[in-house]
Write a structure and sequence with these properties.
Distance between the termini: 58 Å
Radius of gyration: 21 Å
Shape: globular
Largest sheet: 6 strands, parallel
Amino acid sequence: MKALHFGAGNIGRGFIGKLLADSGIRVTFADVNDKVIDRLKVDEGYNVKIVGDAVNTIERVSNVSGVNSKDENAVIALFNEVDLITTAVGPNVLKIIAGTIAKGLQARFAAGNEKPLNIIACENMVRGTTFLKEHVFAHLSPEAQAKAEQLVGFVDSAVDRIVPPVQVDEADPLLVTVEEFSEWIVDETQFKGDIPDIAGMEKTDNLMAFVERKLFTLNTGHATTAYLGKLKGYAFVKESIEDAAIKADVKATMQESGAVLIKRYGFDPQAHAAYIEKILKRFANPYLVDEVDRVGREPLRKLSFNDRLIKPLRGTLEYQLENNHLVNAIAAALSYRNAKDPQALELAQSLAEKGVRETLRHYSELSDEALIERIAQAYKTLSH
């Protein structure tokens, strides 16, 4: 079995690419990074360092290669050979690669290839593959769309593994460091043909329960840790979560978002409490050096209607649940400043020109005026 994976960065190599290769799948990474791709072509493998309380080991990933995404014809040619396409490029890049994927599908159909093909976007977003499909279909004719509906599975997934950026090791430039924990859950109802047997890929027919569990717990907690830590002057997530007051706030925030999950999906309260504790322990992993500015970057995306702060808050309104800590987390996100982050600069400009209430209405799409006022007051408290 062969796979084409878009994105040869840390997550691509350290998480999805590793799971595929470990399951005996030949993986070709597509990326614009010349150095990484050239090295993959020569070495046909790389090392992954796995760190945690119970493990600190290096594992070799082999049976891989690379193709430069700037050579679109070379990428398109691979579409007729592969059985699976995956991505780990970041939500904003999905729209960019959609055109190439559309051309690849057209080339596959033109060659008369009628074998099923599955595409899985492994991104930190809700229903990322469905989003990708919409952009791919925008480049396809009605005939090609019909063919894709028949032969191509666009499979949504939920992914969870902390893979922080690390200083490049000149002696081992492809080395990636990852945490021990990983979770990759796919919607089994969306595959075409046989579902590939990939160790570490879990199948479910209720993906949204797991998408929201991860979004409302890991993502909500991670962002809250970063924004509260930034306010206190911490540079790293580990420092932030070791602050007892921040840890208590983060835990309480995840408990509020967790109450929504328990109501919505019937999660066992004790099991979810244990899941929260596991997340807190992951944030404090001494082997992962993760900057608050990496976790907190792109605050406008994180403050959007269906993302990690606003969506659980809306859930608390739906089920009439407590949300004081979520309100405070959103106020902390509004307080995030980073001169190197375009979204942080745009946020600061909007706050200066339009004020907190109008900024919140615009970016979060919240319409509950009483709730907007509570967030505004919390922001005012944090800002002084």
